[in-house]
Amino acid sequence: MNEITFDDFYQLYQKESLSVLDVREVEEFEALHLEGALNSPLSQLADTYEQLDKIQPYYVICKSGMRSARACQFLAEQGYEVINVLGGMDALE
Asked: Catalytic amino acids?
C-alpha cells in the first residue's frame, strides 16, 4: 500500500491540487476537514466508491490513519490508485 506521512502530504497539499478522499463519518468531516476534500465515509464506501474517478490518484485520510488504511486496501482491490495519509487529521491538531 502506498503511504505518505501527514507532514509530507500537507506540504504537497499546500502546493498542488490533490484529490483528497476523507473517509470519516459526516459529523467528523463537518467539524473539521481540508478544503476541497471529498467526504465518503468508510461505512458507506462499498456503496459509493464507483462514483470515484479511476484515472486520478486519491490521498485517503481519516482521523488517525486506521480507517483510511482499510479504505485504501478496498479501493486498491477495485483498481483505484490510492495513497494512505499516515496520522490522519489528528496530525493537524
From this structure: 62
